[in-house]
Amino acid sequence: MDKETQTLLAEADDSYRKKNYEKALTNYLLAIQKQPNTAEASLGAGKTLIALNRPAEAEDHLEKSASKSDAPAKAHYMLGLIQLEKKEYPAAIENFKKALAKNPNLTTLHWLIGDALRLSENYEEAIPAYQEYLKHKPEDFEALLLLGYCLSLEEEYDSAIEYYSRAIDISPDSTEAYTQRGLAYAMHGKTDEAEADLERALHSDPRNPEIYKIMGSVHEQAGDLVSAALMYERSNNLKFQPDILKKAKDIREQLKDTYLIDVPPDEEDELPPADIMSLPEPAENEIEDIEKDTQDIAAKKPEKQHPPQNTAQQDKKQ
User: Fold this and answer.
1) What's the CATH code of the domain at 281?
2) pLDDT at site 304
3) Domain that holds residue 278
C-alpha cells in the first residue's frame, strides 16, 4: 500500500471515529480508487455506509472486502449481519463461521450462528451453537431462553427445563421464562409443574392472553375441559383470536349444559367476563384468512427476539 493510500485511510478512520461519516466515506472511496484491491478500504466504506443507513451499498463493499485473501474478520462479521437481516441465512452462517475462524475471540458469533440456524428452523444445529456461546457467557438470559426453546422443539424437555431454570435463577420475576418452562413441562407430561409455572407467570402478567391460551391447552391435554374452556375464553376476551374462540365453543358444544363457566368474584375487577357469546363469530373463511395472516406475520419475526409464547410446540406434537 502506498503512502498516499495509507494517509487517506488514516484520515477516513479518524473521521469515522468522530462520526463524521460523509467525510470518512469520501476518503475510503478515494483510497479504493487508488488501490481497488485493498480489503481495509472496502471494509471502511462498508461500515460507514451502514452508519449512513445505506445497507445495499454497504453490502457491495463488504462483499469485495470479504473476497480478499487478507480480509479481516470484521468484513465477514458485518457482511453476515446484513445477510442475517435480509434472511439470507446460509450465506450469513458461512460468513459468521469465516469470521470466527479468523478471530476465535469473537464469541458473539456463536450466538449469531445459533440465531441464523434457529431462524432457518434448523434447531438441531442451533443447539450446540448456543451452548458454545453460553460457555463464554453462562449468565446470558436471552441465550438461555433461546436454547431452551430450541431444545423444546427437538423434544429434549429435560434439558430445556434445565436451561429455563437457569434463566429463572438469573431473572426470578421473568414472566417469559416461567411461561416457556411451563410449556416445556406441559409437553413433557408434567401437568402440575406446568400449571404452577403458568400461574406464576399470570401473577406477574394477569392480562396476557398468550398465557391463558397455553393454560387452556394444558388443561385440555389433562382432560379438564371445563378449565380449558374458561382459559380459552379469558384469552379470547383479552385478545380476539378466531381459533381460540372456536376451541372454546367446540368445548361448550361437547359439554353442552353440564357446567357453567363464570369468573370468580375476586377476579371480576381484573378480567373481562368469560362470556364469548357477546362477541361476533367470524365466518369460516374469515378464520382461515386471519390464521394465514398470523402465520405470515410470525414468519417475519425479527431475529434476536425471544421465542414466541404460543402453543406451536403442542400443535407440533399433536
Assistant:
1) 1.25.40
2) 44
3) 191-318
